[in-house]
Amino acid sequence: MYISDMTHFLNEKGNIPKEMPTEARELASFFALVVDCTTKTMPLKLTPTAIRCFNRGCHGLINTTLKPNKKEIHWYCPECENEGVINNWEGTKWNNNKK
Ligand SMILES: [Zn+2]
């Protein structure tokens, strides 16, 4: 279970730093995709996306949902049961639901 604070992956400009280690950068890009995709539709139950699971050898597609508090994005891979929660995504540039 990954518990991630989106702002921890970003520099002061709100971008994923290029100098980040590859593994962390890939993970950050994955979380950015999840935020981008989920905030387009704001689903309240686990909904399939086109995002591939990042686990090596897994071909699952990630499902995402907003938690009822709408503060956390829950993502889940039905193939390998890889899952996590993303916090603090509201102020990032991948939030498509800014009011
Ligand atoms: Zn998976």
Written description of the protein model:
The protein has one domain (2-87). It is 20% helix and 25% strand. It has one helix spanning 22-41, and strands spanning 2-5, 47-52, 61-66, 73-76, 83-87. It has a 5-stranded mixed beta sheet with strand order 1-5-4-3-2, with helices on one face. Strand 4 (73-76) and strand 5 (83-87) form a beta hairpin. The longest helix is centred in the first third of the chain and has 20 residues, at 22-41. The protein is globular. The relative contact order is 0.23. The model has no long low-confidence stretch (mean pLDDT 96). Residues 53, 55, 58, 60, 77, 79-80, 82 line the site of zinc ion.
Give short descriptive properties of this protein.
about 20% helix; binds zinc ion; about 100 residues; alpha+beta; globular
Sequence-ordered SSE layout with sheet pairings:
Layout: E1 2-5, H1 22-41, E2 47-52, E3 61-66, E4 73-76, E5 83-87
Parallel strand pairs: 1-5
Antiparallel strand pairs: 2-3, 3-4, 4-5
This protein binds zinc ion.
How would you sum up this structure in a few lines?
The chain has one helix at 22-41, and strands at residues 2-5, 47-52, 61-66, 73-76, 83-87. It has 99 residues and is an alpha+beta fold.
